[in-house]
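Marked as duplicate of an earlier ticket. Keeping the data here for the record.
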Amino acid sequence: MLFCTLQLPQFHLQAALRHRPEAWRKPLAVVDETTSRLVGLTPLAAEAGVEIGMSPAQGAARTPRLEILPRAVDTEASLSRIVLEIAGTLSAYLEATAPDLCTLDLQGLTLGDPEAWAKNLLPRFEAVQLRIRAGVAQTPDLSLLAVHSTTPREPVCVVRHSRAFLAPLPLTAVACPETIRTVLHDWGITTLGGLTRLDKDEIATRLGPEALRLWEQAAGCSRRVLRLVRPVERFEETFDFDYEPDTAQPLLFLLRRFVDQLTARLEGVGLVAEALLLTLPLCDGSAYQRRFSIPSPTANPEVLFRILDTHFESLRLELAPVGLRLQAFPTRPHAQQERLFEKALRDPHRFAETVARLMALAGNENVGTPRLLPTHQPDASVLEPPRFGEPPPAPPPPQEEEEPVGLPLRRFRPPLPAKVELREARPGHLACQAVRGTIVDTLGPYRLSGQWWEEGWSTEEWDVELEGGGGLYRLSRSGGQWQVEGCYER
């Protein structure tokens, strides 16, 4: 049985520089604002003499060029999720050992060469801009010691002989009570190998059960049960600005990185994005949010970024953003068989982009698919954004054909404004842009109204005939304004 522990070295620094890769080449430190101590250093900062645990003032005294960044707490939580997310594709038995540590039970897996298997994991994390180290051993505690023995040049450590690996390690490599460590130091024991040369039962008799557990760890035979967790499928990238950007270019630059990271993560677990949620925290504490439905779920970064880029062409904010959040909602790739007598869109993403550009020009409320409202008000409808990937509505059940009653009405859209003269409270003369004449016969009025519990609407309709065969028309009056609704076809 083998276990693998994955570690994010320089965890706080990796989180703070998640979307600042160029900052790795600068003398830079990360400070924990709760303790005012440095918790992460770039190589140039360490070469200048800056050390973990210093205050920012002490670090700046070592090198005036030192840049200080606060901890990116939200990004740290995101990195922990990403490690569990990738590890979940390797084993079903995971433990979130620490924010920067994840332990896998590799039972049931055919690894072949464990070292080659572990090294093949590194490119998967590099694809999402993460530096990872791995330790493989026969027990969870031993794999943890193995990962702590790795170096930047040797990021993978496989323990093949536990006694030989543990013997030279100092007692400080494992959790040891200070009282027991002091006694062992007085006995001249400073390494785990020196401890295991003592009799196990004698150690337990003289120093108690805690020393017995320490001996078992030093011998590589201690075993503990993993506290299993299930990876949370939350695909999100975050960034907080050090300043308020005055153009959209920094936002688009970061969004491109976000999209690349999210699509790499989705492809790693065999999923695609069906929607995106863009959040811009503003300087007054509020936030701008916009959800984008993907016409055809995809993990193509070009398609996803084009949707965001099109939206930013018309985006106008009254307040400056102070951060950026992008979340992808995952789904399984759709496998759909085309219908025989239906022609699908060649590229639904380009059609959605065209619709988005039209909305930017004409307004969101003026572009969409009309849907009739459940009311008797003539032509009452709303525009809805087009929905992609949904099956067409089922046709109504066939009904017996009925003989048409009356003449068909050809409506004018929009209705034509008109002037109507009344004679004995009935329309007597009609004048509008398209028709003019004396009315010789009328039917009506037909009164309609509705939604009295809200603003309400009401209209009065008349059917009129003009003299000399001038035609049959439908008139309406609402709020004192007359309109020609349409004409009847004979």
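See parent ticket for discussion. The longest strand covers residues 409-423.
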